[in-house]
Amino acid sequence: MNNDTNKQMGMEYVMNTYSRLDIALVKGKGSYVWDADGKKYLDMVSGIAVNNVGHCHPQVVKAVQRQAEQLMHCSNLYWNEPQVQLAKMIVDNSCGKKVFFCNSGAEANEAAIKLARKWSYDKYGEGRYEIITAEKSFHGRTLAALTATGQTQYQKGFAPLPAGFKYVPYNDLAALKNAITEKTCAILLEPVQGEGGVYPATKDYLTGVKRLCQENDLLLIFDEVQTGLGRTGKLFAYQHSEVQPDVFTLAKGLGGGLPIGALVARGVAADVLGPGQHAATFGGNPLSTAAALATLTVLIENKLSQQAAEKGQYIIEKLQLMQKETPLIKEVRGLGLMLGIELSIEGKTIQDYCQEQGLLINFVHNHILRLIPPLNIAYEDIDKALAIIEEALTIAWETHQNKRYFI
Question: Which of 100, 101, 138, 222 is catalytic?
Fold first, then answer.
């Protein structure tokens, strides 16, 4: 089927829950994908920070093939070897002590919410259940994760939302301190806000948050669904500071393209949930954990976290030079290969131009260009992407400089 046929059938049979581009992807290799009409694209979105090791990495493909021939699923009534090995590998390379596996970032955050409330209930009894999150945060689409998300546009139409969440401005320690009450049990934050616009937390802020948690006996939860697995230049984003969370969540880049999520806990948080208190039928299945084990091995052995840090700095320096020549760029920010370019115009025409030129990019909030390519992207592909983006911005500036079309 070609692109048009895929679109027509999709509109007829698939629920309309996404604003999709008019292409259907059929193949991926490394930093490139191909559509149903055979056109090749350089992918600077990587499945929204999923394909951290690139599309169809050979080691991940071999691990999936090998596992698919042996055992694809078994119930968590039994142990399975890839799950145990993956849990150990995550713990050995993080501050964690124990891992719970699920299928997505939203599920991992749901598990974290349940863990925090159960820990507080066991220690303090009823009435201490509130979790403080940040404005512009994003934690998932399930009801509790949606309510934890500090963006009202995602919540509209889904009332009544679960009680027990409170929002404060990001990177504002005083506001967070003032929000803590006798009902608070945990603080949930992203080390870098992705869907919110690519805003990194400052080290001083995270240090202060940890101190508030210690002073008030609260659990500190980091949502590393998008920031984890080398994306920010460290294997986990919390490693940029000296702050170790009590709980952190993973998904996206963990499975190399297969669906998997994880809740990682340390200290007292590691032993809160017991048999029957949380579960996921497909969580930690042999196929997904075998893929994740191979992915994590590739990340560590090839030092892709370090590559992300170096390539991210390279892109920032190029963008800062571009900013001097391109008035449309208001700010460049981010960590590693999780970068945001805030523009003074909406990005639809820029995205369309890039797509025509064989480059896939992504905008959040319509005017913030988010670059989240594979961590093993080649420098020549980075230069190619930046050249196309610069062309798009130049054309956009020439088009809009005489119009009042600025944000």
Answer: 138
| Residues 333, 198 contacting (CB under 8 angstroms) | yes
Cα(377)–Cα(380) distance, integer angstroms: 8
Of 118, 136, 252, 311, catalytic: 252
Q: What residue ranges of the chain are covered by domains with CATH 3.90.1150.10? A: 3-57+303-400
Which pLDDT band, with edges at 50, 70 and 90, does 315 fall under? very high
Q: Is 3.40.640.10 the CATH classification of the domain at 58-301? A: yes
pLDDT in tens, 17-27: 999 999 999 99
**Three-class DSSP category at 277:** coil
**Other beta carbons within 10 Å of 281:** 10
Q: What pLDDT does residue 404 have?
A: 54
The average pLDDT across 262-266 equals 98
Are 149 and 137 spatial neighbours (Cβ–Cβ below 8 Å)?
yes
Distance between CA atoms of residues 130 and 124, nearest Å:
13
- One of 3.90.79.10, 3.30.70.20, 1.10.3210.10, 3.90.1150.10 is the CATH number of 3-57+303-400, namely 3.90.1150.10
pTM of the model: 0.96
Share of the chain above pLDDT 70, in %: 98
In this prediction, residue 326 carries a pLDDT of 85
Q: Which of 35, 223, 246, 381 does the annotation list as catalytic?
A: 223
> If you ran DSSP here, which 8-state letter would residue 202 be given?
P
Catalytic (active site) residue 138: yes
pLDDT at 195 over 60: yes
